[in-house]
């Protein structure tokens, strides 16, 4: 499945979850429901996926945790905050680099509509 197809499914399901639950719940609630919906759509989903990094020859296990890794190709970072800040975008970029993945989605369920809270973040994206 191509990356745009996967991200389309993620966005559609995130919109459904947001419409049904509304804004302002804990991030963990949105994560659990969205992960289940994506699995029901036939996508593989790893929740709280640890990322190992190596610096100066030293391996640091579980340096980061990705909220959702979908089909092994899209990182999904979920938030439930009033306003996204630059650090949230940097967080996704930080996850993309050591995983060598091309695309991350930052989804903020704290917004009134998901259209305001959905962002694509790329790392040398190739189609």
Highlighted features:
single chain, 127 residues, alpha+beta, Trna Endonuclease, Chain: A, domain 1, 5-stranded mixed sheet, 4 helices, 40% helix, 32% strand, globular
Q: Helix and strand layout, with pairings?
A:
Elements: H1 3-21, H2 27-40, E1 45-55, E2 58-70, E3 74-79, H3 86-99, E4 103-108, H4 114-117, E5 118-122
Parallel strand pairs: 3-4
Antiparallel strand pairs: 1-2, 2-3, 4-5
Q: Give the overall shape, derived from the CA principal axes.
A: globular
Structural class: alpha+beta
How is the largest sheet built, in terms of strand order? 1-2-3-4-5
How many helices? The count is 4
Gyration radius from CA atoms, angstroms: 14 Å
User: Domains counted in the coordinates: how many?
Assistant: 1
The CATH C-level name is Alpha Beta
Beta-strand fraction estimate: 25-35%
Query: What's the overall average pLDDT, rounded?
Result: 93
